[in-house]
């Protein structure tokens, strides 16, 4: 016997066989005694078992059985021996199933099953006795039940250790596995037995086959094992094939089995259809087994499928409908997961990745729908009620939310089978035309909802688009034309899902449908894009690329690519080797002239009555034809209703020109020029505008004086090698490709010759007519381009080097390939790029649309542009989905920018420009557009308002103020705007308040300007923390949002009004970030942390959405969003604070609370940021500090460190806020905040001093409040402060006296301050400033010495500000005219010789220059000290100073020597002249 594994179950798939091999089981049904049986099992270990590799006793017995079978094959065997062999093989297979983890046992088991199959096939008449299996299965069942009960009791006991509990659970799992293995082997053996004896095995009562099958069906029916279910269904299908239900004389054992199966199925279906009872996992498990049985029985020959249809299908449809309704109502589905099952073995081979797991509700739905889909159409006489219920169920699954992708894919396949698959004769269509449209519409919406994303995306798209294209293009049946049109219009045009396909070939197929449905006229296609097409369903996509695809598809793809008018080609490599061809437009003009001349000759020959010949037929209007120098046909700008312009030419010239592949004569051209701003201007035919956009000039090339086609290294893309027709061959024998590629000269001659032949004249009439034309218009010799062979011949003839020959060959090959490119190659590449990249589509749209818009004008009127302008604006006005607003780029940006670049530009309302710019983040286009409108129409208030609104949203306050200064009518408004721009908010607020109080005449002030006053005043009040004023205004104007901002910032906050009245009304209006944050504040104050977190998350989402709508490079508009985000972060931290202080554990250390409070101290805004932002953060922290103080108020004795926790941080935050207000120049706000925010009597000494200091500085800066500040300092009890703080208080007193001109009191206060703390650097600096001021007042030089002494003492005490006074010290030193010993400034500097020498380093040049003045002694002393401590710093500057001085000194000395020598010589000469004898 050829050993091997078992075969497969009848009708089993290879995947099922592979699964059984993985489980260590074999499948019945293999042919006995063949090697194919071994290969079918897929078990590699079988070969070893056949050879007797195993040494177990069972292996020896199996080998003996195999030998006996081999002998029986040669000679007859007694029935008793055959029974023993079959019984032994069954027993050994069953015994080996208990040791399923041993590889040898698995191999031997598989071999035993194979021998069992061959044995029962060899002796088909022998009785098969498998009674031992009943007893073994009962024992395994009892053992599994006992182990499960023991495990259940163990989980309820408390005296077991985790190790003992784990051992008990492992024992239960082992018993369960042994029972499953025994059941699987019994099913496999029984199935093999029924394969050999389908009727005898059941009817033999003595052997108990029917009883065994019944015992196996019940546990297999109630399992989630895919393998057990597969063997069970195989067993049931064999039973039904042998004993058909309803057949006469069915044996009682078989009838009992059929009744058992029918009862189990009916119970499962009844339980699934009973809506009054909750479905359990066991019910779902039995329903899955029922569907498996029905699937298997549907493959059995008739009448079994009919029996299934009549008995069970209706109930299954009702069960599926129940599940669908539960899913539509949002009830959770039942998903049963078996933890002891390997998921990888449950998926059949070839199944898709999204296929559900066996036994789950999704699996039941998928396989149930797959089962009933063909039966509701053809079965039971096509019951209309059942079909209606089935279709309603499909619609419900499509429209329900969160339907599993596998179910949706199955529904798609069902609908496809109803619509596409062929039906038999007389079978009506499952779906009517209306139902077809409904299903397609619902399925198309799934893509927009995102339900098809994931693993099913590619398969879904292929299946749906193939179905849709079949319905839109299939020609049969003839009566389906209406359905085809309705499907294309209602489904494809509504969703354009075909043009959005991922596969290029699919997009091409659907584009052909649009190309055939839409006329190839520019006006009609633009009208389709802007007006006729409804883009609502495509708002989640960048649908402008589909319109671009339709426009680019109008191009004539066969035309050659031509160079732009201003293009500059590279110098040709082979230019001198070949003459250039004649330009194409000149060829067309020559053909046109020849045709007209031939027509005139014909008219004269016929008598010449002077009548004009009929016009030459023109191409279809609107067809884009590639012309030289960027020329577009004139028909591009015509509507479909406009008639073609008549011309005079011969009718015979048209077909000849068409045959030669040339544009027909009489087609006027329109040249479109692009200016530097991206605008297009029309020009006259045959002319092209110059670079400056002024008067047109002839369309000529810089090289030849005529328009040139596109050149690739000097050779025309249209030049092709002419083919010579063989002699005697008819004209029809020339292929269209050759005729279309013929040279332009041939087209010209053909046109003239055709016209002459039509006139009855010889063919040389056209040349004779052309002889009168100038020689300059004659075409040059036409030649073919250089080919690879030509290049090789030229190189060989010229005896060029090898590398140069290779270069020529490569260049010629490049020219051959590139010269054949046409418009189709270019347009296809552009369309593919636009389909795959939205950014590319955006750039192409804003480039192409202005050109096409200009092409609509024809110099006579612009009716086409006027008729398209309104639909274009309506398209911009439509409110699209939020997904479109979140896209980058989006349609709004593309449309607005394309309109801004178009000429003549459509008039877009300013409000619409503002809306599009804000909604679609098109600020970069909307703002320049409105700015140009404001410049052109300075009196248009709508443009001003729209532009001002965009400036406000972008945070461009300076631009906004500049815009209003141009618009406002009063000087007071301009003054207020100037103060606001400079940041002088208190002064601006006073000006605004005065201008609002003035009486104005009605015509003097615009309403918008008055609104500006109110808004600006409110903005200044918010910035100055005047929230009482804002609250009063908001209540008077009933502004809910303004009340929401102001009430919680009041001192004290009005939480009750916010909670009861304001917040409910604010939440009913448009949601805002402020509303959500304040609502979260309320929840925090009410200790509702969960609600506060919810509103904080909502505020975060709104902030991110607003951030996304702003431009990327604009930071000023994003600063408020960052500040609001910091408020949200502190909201989350406040929730943690509440959770931490709510911990009642006595040992709790409040670590989170301390960390957050410390973080709040470190995380503060920048000092230059607005005061309103500081106030928003610190005021909310102030409320949290109050909460902490109230919690720890009673812990002063138990935990004093916690008692002071809130007080210290609150005082610090109040002082910090008042300091920022003072440094911003808001002194009144500083005093108001510091007096009202704290609210407690107890305060730490350090913070109390900081509070007094800030108050005093704020009062000092206000001339009218200085006396109040001085009284504050005089009434302060200094006993609580240390000497340093006391000295600072006296210094502040001295500053008040100095400001109030109390000179003596100021001097005494400074003296007292520094006597209390001599190291007070600020005191020395202030006293020096006072002494300097006294010198200016009294001109007493003694004050100079005092001032310099104070400055230098401040520097000695490390005052950074005092170092800036050194230039003043050096200035006083330079201008002190007192002689050196009595010089007051020099004496003071020499007395402070111990100050850091490094402070003089920046002033070395000044000190060196002082060496030549009166202060040279002091300067020399300082420089000497610097030379000792910092020699390098002094050396280079001193050397740079000394070198010119030394050179000057040397020059002076030399001049003096020369002068002295000259004088001596002159004196000697004079003496010699006076006494010649002495000279001699």
Descriptive report:
It is built from 67 helices and seven strands. The chain is mainly α. The strands form three sheets. It has a three-stranded antiparallel beta sheet, covered by helices on one side. Strand 2 (669-674) and strand 3 (680-683) form a beta hairpin. Helix 10 (209-221) crosses helix 11 (226-242) and helix 20 (457-473) packs parallel to helix 22. The protein starts with 13 loop residues before the first helix and ends with a helix.
Query: How many helices in DSSP terms?
Result: 67
Report, as a whole number of angstroms, the end-to-end distance: 160 Å
DSSP E strands, number:
7
Percent of residues in helices:
55-70%
Could you report the average pLDDT, rounded to the nearest whole number?
Answer: 77
Report the sheet-strand fraction. under 5%
**Major sheet attributes:** 3 strands, antiparallel
Strand order in the sheet with the most strands: 1-2-3
Short summary of the structure?
With 1480 residues, this protein is mainly alpha-helical. It is extended.
């Amino acid at each position: 016997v050829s050993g091997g594994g078992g075969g497969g179950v009848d009708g089993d798939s290879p995947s099922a066989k592979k699964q059984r091999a993985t489980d260590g089981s074999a499948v019945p049904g293999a042919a006995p005694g063949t090697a194919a049986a071994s290969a079918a099992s897929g078990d590699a270990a079988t070969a070893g078992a056949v050879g007797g590799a195993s040494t177990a006793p069972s292996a020896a017995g199996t080998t003996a059985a195999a030998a006996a079978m081999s002998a029986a094959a040669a000679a007859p065997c007694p029935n008793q021996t055959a029974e023993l062999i079959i019984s032994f093989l069954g027993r050994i297979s069953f015994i080996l199933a208990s040791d399923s983890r041993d590889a040898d046992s698995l191999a031997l088991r598989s071999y035993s099953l194979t021998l069992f199959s061959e044995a029962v096939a060899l002796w088909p008449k022998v009785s098969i006795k498998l009674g031992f299996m009943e007893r073994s299965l009962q024992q395994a069942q009892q053992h599994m039940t006992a182990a499960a009960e023991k495990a259940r009791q163990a989980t309820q006991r408390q005296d077991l250790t985790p190790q003992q509990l784990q051992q008990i659970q492992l024992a239960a799992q082992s018993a369960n596995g042994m029972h499953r293995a025994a059941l699987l082997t019994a099913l496999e053996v029984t199935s093999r037995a029924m394969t050999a004896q389908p009727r005898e095995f059941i009817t033999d009562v003595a052997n108990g086959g029917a009883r065994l099958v019944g015992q196996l069906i019940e546990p297999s029916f109630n399992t989630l094992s895919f393998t057990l279910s597969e063997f069970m269904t195989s067993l049931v299908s064999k039973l039904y094939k042998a004993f058909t239900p309803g057949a006469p004389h069915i044996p009682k054992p078989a009838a009992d089995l059929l009744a058992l199966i029918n009862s189990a199925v009916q119970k499962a279906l009844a339980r699934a259809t009973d809506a009054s009872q909750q479905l359990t996992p066991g019910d779902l498990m039995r329903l899955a087994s029922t569907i498996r049985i029905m699937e298997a029985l549907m493959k059995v020959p008739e009448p079994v499928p009919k029996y299934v249809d009549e008995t069970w299908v209706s109930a299954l449809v009702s069960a599926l409908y129940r599940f669908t309704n539960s899913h539509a109502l949002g009830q959770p589905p039942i998903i049963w997961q078996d933890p002891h099952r390997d998921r990888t073995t449950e998926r059949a081979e070839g199944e898709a990745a999204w296929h559900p797991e066996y036994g789950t509700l999704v699996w039941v739905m998928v396989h149930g729908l797959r089962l009933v889909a063909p039966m509701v159409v053809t079965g039971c006489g096509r019951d209309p009620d059942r079909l209606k219920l089935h279709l309603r169920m499909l619609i419900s699954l499509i429209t329900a939310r969160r339907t599993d992708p596998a179910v949706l894919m199955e529904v798609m396949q069902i609908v496809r089978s109803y619509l596409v698959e062929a039906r038999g004769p007389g079978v009506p269509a499952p779906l009517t035309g209306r139902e077809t449209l409904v299903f397609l519409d619902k399925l198309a919406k799934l893509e927009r909802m995102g339900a098809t994303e994931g693993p099913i995306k590619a398969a879904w798209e292929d299946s749906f688009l193939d179905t849709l294209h079949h319905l839109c293009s299939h020609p049969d049946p003839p009566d389906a034309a209406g359905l085809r049109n309705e499907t294309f219009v209602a489904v494809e045009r509504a969703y354009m899902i075909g043009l959005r396909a991922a596969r290029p070939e699919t997009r091409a197929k659907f584009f052909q449908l649009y190309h055939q449905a839409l006329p190839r006229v520019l006006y009609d296609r633009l009208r389709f894009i802007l007006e006729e097409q409804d883009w609502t369903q495509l708002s989640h996509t960048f649908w402008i690329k589909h319109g671009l695809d339709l426009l680019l598809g109008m191009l004539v793809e066969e035309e050659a690519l031509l160079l732009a008018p201003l293009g500059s080609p590279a110098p040709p490599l082979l230019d001198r080797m070949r003459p250039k061809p004649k330009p194409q437009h000149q060829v067309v003009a020559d053909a046109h002239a020849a045709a007209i001349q031939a027509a005139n000759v014909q008219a004269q020959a016929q008598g010449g009555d002077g009548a004009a010949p009929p016009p030459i037929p023109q191409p279809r209007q609107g067809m884009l034809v590639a012309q030289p120098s960027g020329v577009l046909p004139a028909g591009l700008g015509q509507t479909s209703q406009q008639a073609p312009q008549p011309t005079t030419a011969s009718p015979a010239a048209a077909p000849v020109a068409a045959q030669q592949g040339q544009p027909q004569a009489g087609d006027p051209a329109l040249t479109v020029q692009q200016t530097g701003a991206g605008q297009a201007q029309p020009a006259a035919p045959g002319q092209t505008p110059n670079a400056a956009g002024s008067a047109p000039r002839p369309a000529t090339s810089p090289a030849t004086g005529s328009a040139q086609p596109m050149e690739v290294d000097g050779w025309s893309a249209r030049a092709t090698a002419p083919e010579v027709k063989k002699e005697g061959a008819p004209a029809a024998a020339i292929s269209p490709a050759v005729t279309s590629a013929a040279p332009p000269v041939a087209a010209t001659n053909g046109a003239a010759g055709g016209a002459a032949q039509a006139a009855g004249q010889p063919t040389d009439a056209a040349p004779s007519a052309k002889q009168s034309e100038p020689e300059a218009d004659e075409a040059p010799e036409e030649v073919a381009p250089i080919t690879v062979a030509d290049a090789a011949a030229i190189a060989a003839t010229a005896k060029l080097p090898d590398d140069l020959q290779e270069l020529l060959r490569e260049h010629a090959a490049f020219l051959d390939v590139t010269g054949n490119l046409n418009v189709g190659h270019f347009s296809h590449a552009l369309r593919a790029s636009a389909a795959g990249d939205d950014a590319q589509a955006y750039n192409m749209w804003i480039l192409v649309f202005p050109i096409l818009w200009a092409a609509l004008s024809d110099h006579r009127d612009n009716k086409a542009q006027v008729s398209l302008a309104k639909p274009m604006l309506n398209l911009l006005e439509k409110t699209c989905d939020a997904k479109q607003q979140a896209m980058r780029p989006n349609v709004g940006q593309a449309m607005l920018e394309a309109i801004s670049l178009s000429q003549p530009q459509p008039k877009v309302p300013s409000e619409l420009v503002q809306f599009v710019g804000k909604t679609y983040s098109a600020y970069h286009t909307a703002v320049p557009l409105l700015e140009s409108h404001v410049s052109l129409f300075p009196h248009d208030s709508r443009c001003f308002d729209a532009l001002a609104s965009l400036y406000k949203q972008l945070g461009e306050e300076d631009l906004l103020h500049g815009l209003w200064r141009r618009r406002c009518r009063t000087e007071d408004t301009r003054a207020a705007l100037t103060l606001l721009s400079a940041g002088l908010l208190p002064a601006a607020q006073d000006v605004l308040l005065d201008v609002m109080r003035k009486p104005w005449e009605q015509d003097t002030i615009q309403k918008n300007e008055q609104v500006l006053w109110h808004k600006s005043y409110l903005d200044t009040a918010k910035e100055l923390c005047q929230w009482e004023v804002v609250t009063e205004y908001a209540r008077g104007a009933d502004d809910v949002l303004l009340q929401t901002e102001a009430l919680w910032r009041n001192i004290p906050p009005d939480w009750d009004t916010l909670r009861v009245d304001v917040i409910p009304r604010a939440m009913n209006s448009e949601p805002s970030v402020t509303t959500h944050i304040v609502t979260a504040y309320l929840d925090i104050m009410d200790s509702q942390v969960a609600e506060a977190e919810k509103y904080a998350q909502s505020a975060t989402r709104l902030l991110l959405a607003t951030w996304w709508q702003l431009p990327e490079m604009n930071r000023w508009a994003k600063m408020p969003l960052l500040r609001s985000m910091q408020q949200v972060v502190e909201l989350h931290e406040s929730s943690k604070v509440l959770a931490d202080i709510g911990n009642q554990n006595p040992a709790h250390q409040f670590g989170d609370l301390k960390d957050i409070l410390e973080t709040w101290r470190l995380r503060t805004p920048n000092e230059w940021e607005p005061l309103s932002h500081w106030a928003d953060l610190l005021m909310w922290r102030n409320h949290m500090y109050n909460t902490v103080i109230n919690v720890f108020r009673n812990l002063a004795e138990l935990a004093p460190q916690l008692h002071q926790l809130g007080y210290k941080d609150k005082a610090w935050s109040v002082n910090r806020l008042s300091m920022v207000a003072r440094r911003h120049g808001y002194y009144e706000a500083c005093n108001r905040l510091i007096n009202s925010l704290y609210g407690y009597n107890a305060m730490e000494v350090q913070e109390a001093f900081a509070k007094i200091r800030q108050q005093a500085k704020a009062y000092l800066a206000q001339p009218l409040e200085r006396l109040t500040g001085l009284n504050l300092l005089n009434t302060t009890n200094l006993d609580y402060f240390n000497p340093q703080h006391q000295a600072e208080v006296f210094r502040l007193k001295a500053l008040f006296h100095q400001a109030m001109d109390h000179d003596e009191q100021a001097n005494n206060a400074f003296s007292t301050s520094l006597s209390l703390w001599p190291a007070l650097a600020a005191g020395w600096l202030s006293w020096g400033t006072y002494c300097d001021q006294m010198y200016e007042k009294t001109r007493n030089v003694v004050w100079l010495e005092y001032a310099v002494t104070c400055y230098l003492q401040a520097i000695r005490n490390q005052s950074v500000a005092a170092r800036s006074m050194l230039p003043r010290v050096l200035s006083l030193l330079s201008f002190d005219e007192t002689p050196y010993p009595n010089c007051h400034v020099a004496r003071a500097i020499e007395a402070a010789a111990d100050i850091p020498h490094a402070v003089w380093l920046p002033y070395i040049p000044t000190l060196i220059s002082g060496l030549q003045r009166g202060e040279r002694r002091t300067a020399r002393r300082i420089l000497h000290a610097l030379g000792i401590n910092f020699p390098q710093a002094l050396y280079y500057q001193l050397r740079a100073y000394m070198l010119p001085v030394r050179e000057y000194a040397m020059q002076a000395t030399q001049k003096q020597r020369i002068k002295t020598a000259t004088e001596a010589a002159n004196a000697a000469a004079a003496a010699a002249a006076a006494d010649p004898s002495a000279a001699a």
